[in-house]
UniProtKB/TrEMBL annotation:
It comes from the Eukaryota. This is Uncharacterized protein. It comes from Leptidea sinapis. The keyword Signal applies. InterPro entries: Fibroin_P25. GO terms for cellular component: extracellular region. One of its GO terms (molecular function) is structural molecule activity. It holds the Pfam family Fibroin_P25. Keywords: Signal.
Amino acid sequence: MLGKLIIFLSISSTAYAGPSNIVRPCHYTNTVCLRENLAANSNCNPTVRGSIPGEYSIGRFPFETPYFNASYIDNNLIIRNHNKCVTSEFFYNVQADTLVLSIDCPFLEFDSH
């Protein structure tokens, strides 16, 4: 009898919790769905040709690190493997009216001269 009561209370508390504020319109690996959602909700152009280059450079890149009370400037910064980044999360937080798009870049390389 006690077991049935515990199961009933668990199910009741789950039902009482209410709907989730997180909406996942598609799986984060479905790039077609991601593209359509971004185009519909943020005025992105889904017909842009091309992709992220494997390597590109930035002539001057100032970088602030307030936690360490330091700043520095990279000259001729070369960024590599940006094209190997992957989407790791995609959802809407309805309560905060926020879209979360998380991208992981485990092979990203920086080179500065």
